[in-house]
Amino acid sequence: MNHYKWPDPPGQSAFPIARPGYPFVFGAAFVTAVFAIIGLKALALLGLFATIFICYFFRDPDRPIPEGEGAVVSPADGKVIVVQPVAGNPFNNEPGLKISIFMSIFNVHVNRSPYQGQVSAIRYFPGKFFNASLDKASKDNEQNAVQLDIGQGRKLCFVQIAGLVARRIVCNVREGDQLSRGQRFGLICFGSRLDVYLPENTKAQVAVGDKVAAGTSILGYLP
Predict the structure, then answer these.
(1) Were 148 and a residue from 4, 117, 136, 161 both cysteine, which residue would form a disulfide, CB within 3.0 to 4.6 Å?
(2) Domain boundaries defined on the chain
(3) CATH of the domain spanning 70-221
(4) What is the pTM of this model?
(5) Active site residue 192
């Protein structure tokens, strides 16, 4: 039987919404109320649909996290678009395994730590806003890279990458913070991508085209 744990305290709401989404939700609700008060029924109805969709987009469900030895979990909901060996990552030139997950606007966009460890470095790179499903997005798009010290001299890296529509990357951790596997650490708004760089010889458990869920899907097992 698999064992699971809660890296974050379970929420008290039946439909939890990520905090960065509050301004968008309240803004859309306010505009909708104004349209309704002044009698613009069509615009009020459109605003209501927009408010509901924004609530849906910023949903933040609780997730039980598997405790398998060496298991690396997905940091994002979405579709696996890359599984390949690489010669380096944003922090060093050490060979490893890269797994990329594309998030459409219909996926949960709250990001979770793929493994437990200490944040040893964070680097932000301003850039462009190509479609996040394209390979050049990993190099050219705005992104925020986090390096995690996972013990025994090993490190892994995960990178939040803005997409064609996304214009805001939220990262709530700092250098020196301790993260648990599956713990929430940030969010990207409106369509984006997560790249994960794992140590060489990591055994991948996913393939291109697979659908994964943040915190619950296992990407691979560390050597």
Answers:
(1) 117
(2) 19-57, 70-221
(3) 2.70.70
(4) 0.89
(5) yes
Amino acid at 149: D
| pLDDT tens, N- to C-terminus, the chain (223 residues) | 568 787 877 777 767 888 888 998 999 999 999 999 999 999 999 999 999 999 998 999 999 999 888 999 999 999 999 999 999 999 999 999 999 999 988 999 999 999 999 999 999 988 776 666 667 767 778 899 999 999 988 999 999 998 766 567 899 999 999 999 999 999 987 768 999 999 999 999 999 999 999 999 999 999 8
